[in-house]
Write a structure and sequence with these properties.
Shape: globular
Radius of gyration: 19 Å
CATH architecture: 3-Layer(aba) Sandwich
Bound molecules: nicotinamide-adenine-dinucleotide
CATH class: Alpha Beta
Helix content: 25-40%
Order of helices and strands: EHEHEHEHHEHEEHEEEHEEHEHH
Oligomer: single chain
Number of strands: 13
Number of helices: 11
Length: about 350
């Protein structure tokens, strides 16, 4: 392996994806500064456990504060001058944004603004920021392609994420900041989020309780295993976009004609029916789910499916983990963590 002397700043480092990414960057020899406010959107103990594991590395430094705090990121950037920035901190969750929109405004919009200002003052070689498949909103043509317009977001969460894409594009254009926006597709795996279906279903099934199955089970998702996703992010770190000469962009590339900026789907490119996903949990737990069929939830979409040809052509990436295998890893972790 090439020896590293780069510093990476990761926001959302105690989160589900942030934890795995920090572990990977530390293993690759990066110095990592992790910023995470340990918000109480879900069980803080889970975040503390994740953080305590990465803190075992001497090359990791934790800053537990809110990214939208004026001056916090500016001071940190002035001191640490990170080479790479991966921005994962956000108020996540589609449904929660219906009742608590202000927290999305603060963490996702103001927080990203503070980050952009810090990067303007102390430009990293490459910044990579998390957007979401929810940005595709009401689009029904599948698979989702980065170059197709995505203007009809269905939740305020998705709207804030789409807005961060535009905000980042303007800074990339004006201040020459190479920036990649990821559109992540339903990420799952060990240490996953308690607000997401896999966690909720596993908890209920193991407790002998019914599970809520929305849209009467007629849903599909492009489930992405966290280990595969981290591999994709790691490859993209070393693939910074370059402002195109004379605005000429290759067919199939989402590169901006006027900025070193690109949007990239990270998914499995293999949508799975919710019912098949539940069967994988039943197989992994050895228990049958009692399903409560419910109507579609507000703000949600019935299907997602990533076209990942841009990611593959940029990095050679190919996902390795099947849903059966990935769900097994999660269930094994869950039983071990909660001792059930
Ligand atoms: N998990 C998925 O399926 C998925 C899908 C699409 C997009 N994303 C995006 O990927 C990123 C990471 O998601 P995750 O699943 O790891 O979520 P997560 O909630 O586990 O991690 C986010 C972390 O950010 C921290 N945070 C939130 N607001 C903050 C603030 N204002 N200041 C500092 N820290 C703050 C939280 O404490 C948390 O630890 C998010 O931006 C999310 O929107 C995730």
């Amino acid at each position: 392996m090439i020896s590293e002397n780069r510093t990476a700043l990761v926001t959302g480092s105690a989160g589900f994806i942030g934890y795995f990414l920090c572990k990977r960057l530390l293993a690759d020899g990066f110095r990592v500064i992790g910023v995470d406010a340990m918000t109480d959107y879900y069980d803080v103990a889970l975040k503390q456990r994740r953080q305590s594991m990465i803190m075992q590395s001497q090359n990791f430094r934790a800053v537990n504060d809110r990214i939208e705090t004026p001056g916090l990121l500016m001071d940190l950037f002035a001191k640490e001058k990170p080479d790479v920035v991966v921005h994962l901190a956000a108020q996540a969750g589609v449904r929660h944004s219906i009742d608590f929109p202000r927290s999305y405004l603060e963490s996702n919009l103001v927080g990203t603004f503070e980050l952009l200002e810090a990067m303007r003052a102390f430009p990293p070689a490459h910044s990579l920021l998390a957007s979401t498949s929810s940005a595709y909103g009401a689009n029904t043509e599948m698979p989702y392609i980065e170059n197709v317009r995505a203007d009809h977001q269905m939740s305020f969460y998705a709207a804030t994420k789409k807005a961060t894409e535009s905000m980042t594009h303007s800074y990339a254009h004006l201040f020459d900041l190479p920036s990649t926006m990821f559109r992540f597709f339903t990420v799952y795996g060990p240490w996953g989020r308690p607000d997401m279906a896999l966690f909720k279903f596993t908890r209920a099934i193991l407790a002998g309780q019914p599970i809520d199955v929305y849209n009467y089970g007629d849903m599909s998702r492009d489930f992405t295993y966290v280990g595969d996703l981290v591999n994709a992010v790691r490859l993209l770190i070393d693939t910074p976009p370059v402002r195109p000469k004379d605005g000429v962009v290759l067919a199939g590339d989402s590169l901006s004609p006027v900025a070193p900026f690109r949007v990239v789907n990270i998914g499995n490119s293999e949508p799975v029916q919710l019912t098949a996903f539940i069967e994988a949990i039943e197989e992994a737990t050895g228990m049958k789910a009692e399903q409560k069929r419910m109507p579609m939830q507000a703000g949600d979409v019935p299907a997602t499916w990533a076209d990942t040809s841009l990611l593959t052509s940029l990095t050679g990436y190919a996902p390795r983990t099947s849903v059966t295998e990935g769900v097994k890893h999660f269930v094994n972790w869950y039983r071990d963590y909660f001792n059930v």
